[in-house]
Amino acid sequence: MASALKRSKAAAAMHLIPLLFLSLLATAIANLLPRQAPQNQFVELNLPGGTFYVGCYTDDVAKRTLYESSYSDDTNTGAKYVSILSHINYLQGLEWSSECWWGFTLAGGTSATDSDCNMVCTDNDNQLCGGPDRLTIYDTNLAVPQQNPGVNGYSCLGCWSDIVSARTLSNTVGVLGGSANMNVDGRTSACNANGFAYSGVEYAGECWCGNRIDNGSAQVSGISLTNGCDMPCNGNLTEFCGGSDRLNLYHTPTRTNLVKEGDF
Ligand SMILES: *[C@@H]1O[C@H](CO)[C@@H](O)[C@H](O)[C@H]1NC(C)=O
Ligand SMILES: CC(=O)N[C@H]1CO[C@H](CO)[C@@H](O)[C@@H]1O
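That is the input. Now the predicted structure with 2-acetamido-2-deoxy-beta-D-glucopyranose docked in place:
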């Protein structure tokens, strides 16, 4: 009886071997077939010209692959993310269905297989938004912006700290076309026309003017990719307009009719 049982178990196992072989073969063939690239799902979204799929990359909460900024929203779709951030995105990454990351360069991470990025976007089953510790990365193919060295007689003093509750420059002066039209040229000429020797651009579209540096603001060293002055101007994507709590500060030594602080 016992030996009959053993024999039948062995016979069953013999039947499993061809099945196992067939399943391995099927997997091998599937891997050889061309896979639908994720970017095909985004082509329909009218991505800004030139945007292309870079690949699936690893990410690490302790050392982000794209560190410039992040945005998370449970109603995220790739399309929504792209439309919100397309004007400031250079490399953009989608992760864990609803997280959006961007940066000018890959700050870490390594290339992973496309199939690791297998999570669909939170509210759109037809788009892929990365995976666990995996980013679906796109490149907008835009040139990385530069710090404008100076214009209209103002020269750049670099990147300076600012705080909402204690401003570095205490006067706001609008530019023609408003925040959406902000650039260093418009910014410095508006401060000049209003009698200010210092001019600052912040957070892509904020305008600040003053005749002294207030509240203990200090220069932040480093290149634009690391010192926080990393947001392209709304009105000129090829130059920086400060960042979050950061001003690109400009000064002109030639102004003679300075207004007093508080006069404006
Ligand atoms: C845009 O920025 C670049 C770099 O700072 C500058 O050379 C160019 O004159 C700017 N264009 C305008 C219209 O301000
Ligand atoms: C919080 C703080 O100290 N704010 C100061 C920033 O600088 C302006 C101009 O000197 C002062 O009026 C504020 O009190």
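Residues 32-46, 82-88, 260-264 have pLDDT under 50 and may be disordered.
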